[in-house]
Amino acid sequence: MDLAQKLQYLTLDVISLIGFGQAFGMVATDSDVDSYVASSKVGLQFITYVVALGLQPIVHCRPFARLFGPKATDERGVGRMIELASRLIDARLSKSLEGKSDMLASFIGHGLNRDDLVTESILQILAGSDTTATSLRVIMLYVISHPNVYRRLQKEVDRTVEKGLTTTGKEVVSEAVCKGMEYMQAVIKEALRISPPVTDVVPKVVPKGGDRVIVDGEQVYLPEGTHVGYCVLGLMHREDVFGDNVEFFRPERWLINDRAKVEKMSRTIEMVFGYGKYQCLGKGIAYMEIGKVVFEVSADMMSI
Asked: Is 226 part of any domain?
């Protein structure tokens, strides 16, 4: 079984259900419905090349975008995503919003026009599926390849089920139960640390007038217009933050009796999702989904 593929199908179905109130149906059919996975791969590759080569100003130019930009008539890539989102949105706009509580209903209720709805929908699907799938792949890879971690995680899941804190088999485990599982949370954080799903520099621009920040205890002046970024992978492997043996997957580093150090590590891990008003808006959904999937897969293993 290609677990990596199944996880991507799952995350796409989850975000489409949350976003449109209707899952794509990839898990049910065990297939890449409407070639969305293939299209998103092409779209992400295109975005990577544009950013790496500094072509954003050209791509954002209206004449260029009209001639060479993605279109709903395209068979692959971002254009295919536009066609899919447009079809789902048109179907929803023709119906009543009464009783609907998904993200699309919220967008419509806040007055977004059709073009904005398409743009926001594509963004939420891209941002809410690929990185979550990547995180789940990393977590499951490290759990499967570290027998001692697997056994300890399995015991914690088994105890949770035996205590009756969840009704596995009838409904999905609650987020509250997942958050209370100390070792599982340590496994998730350690996987995000050792192999973060996003490794760009997350650039920010210093505002007008410049700014002063504290770096290693010293005040540093940053001139306006300066681009400030950070190396996510390097940050997650700092020994002064995470201790020794940072190159190894070791969830136990999160279970030490040092609250201040654990809080510092946790704040650093949050940088994977960005910081401040620019942080990933889907962070809460991602954490919730990751916890539920890891728990349910482990719980199912118990019954085999």
From this structure: yes
Same domain, 213 and 128: no
Residue 213 bridge partners (DSSP): 220
Q: State the total domains in the chain.
A: 2
**Distance between CA atoms of 89 and 252, rounded to whole angstroms?**
46
Whole-number percent of the chain with pLDDT over 70: 93
**pLDDT tier for residue 92 given thresholds of 50, 70 and 90:** confident
Q: Is the domain of 128 the same as that of 46?
A: yes
Give the range of the structural domain holding residue 272, as residue numbers without chain letter. Answer: 182-304
The three-state secondary structure class of 205 is strand
- pLDDT for residue 202 is more than 80: no
Contact residues for 114 (Cβ-Cβ < 8 A; gap 6+): 89, 90, 93
The answer to whether the CB of 11 falls within 8 A of the CB of 129 is yes
Helix H or strand E encompassing 81: helix 77-93
- Check if the beta carbon of residue 7 is closer than 8 Å to that of residue 133: yes
295 domain residue, yes or no: yes
Q: For residue range 51-63, what is the model confidence (pLDDT) as tens digits?
A: 888 888 888 888 8
CB 14 within 8 A of CB 289: yes
